[in-house]
Amino acid sequence: MPDVPDKRAWEQVNKALEKKQMDEALPPQPGAVMDSAQLDATKHQLSEVARVRKAQATVIAEQFIRALDQRHLEYLTSLGLRNLEVRQRALIEVGDQTTAMLRELETRDWPQHLIDKTIQSVVELHARFFEKIMAELGQQK
After folding, report:
1. CA 116 centroid distance within chain
2. What is the CA radius of gyration of the chain?
3. String of DSSP letters for 29-42
4. pLDDT in tens, 30-87
5. How crowded is residue 139: how many other Cβ atoms within 10 Å of its Cβ?
6. Mean pLDDT on 86-90
7. Mean per-residue pLDDT of the chain
8. pLDDT tens, 52-66?
């Protein structure tokens, strides 16, 4: 995962660049007057400084967004895996409960048609629950 640049390091680089560019733009003698060509050159250099700083800010923002997107995807993936595990455990649990219920029905002293009808209902309920969980898993893609 890309690291987000250190803000202090960028500030130091920006200050150094700004100082260097300002020193180059200003007249060499204190109190000296600039002519219009020098003034235009200074305006151009200051425009370039602003453009460079804007580009640097854009690069930093893009790196930050990429890092944030990566963390967000990792988080969503972990949620999906946990959700999948919960659903798989639910499927196992419904299987265990259905099996226990079928075993219990075999031991009942009921008329056979009532046992058969109850077994059929338990199996249908198991199938509906299983299908519901599988359908929900498919919708999360």
Report:
1. 51
2. 35
3. STTPPP-HHHHHHH
4. 555 667 777 788 888 888 888 888 888 888 888 888 888 788 777 777 777 777 788 8
5. 7
6. 82
7. 78
8. 888 888 888 888 888
Quick one: which of 132, 141, 134 has its CA closest to 77?
141
Q: What is the pTM of this model?
A: 0.44
Do 10 and 60 contact (CB within 8 A), yes or no?
yes
Q: In which residue are the tokens 């235009």 written? A: 40
Distance from the first to the final alpha carbon of the chain: 23
Distance CA(123)–CA(141), nearest Å, equals 28
- Give one DSSP letter per residue of the chain, joined into a string: -PPPPPHHHHHHHHHHHHHHHHHHHS-SSTTPPP-HHHHHHHHHHHHHHHHHHHHHHHHHHHHHHHHHHHHHHHHHHHHHHHHHHHHHHHHHHHHHHHHHHHHHHHT--S-HHHHHHHHHHHHHHHHHHHHHHHHHHHHT-
Q: Using an 8 Å Cβ cutoff, are 87 and 136 in contact?
A: yes
List the structure tokens of 119: 């077994």
User: What pLDDT score was predicted for residue 22?
Assistant: 65
Give the number of other Cβ atoms within 10 Å of residue 107's Cβ: 8
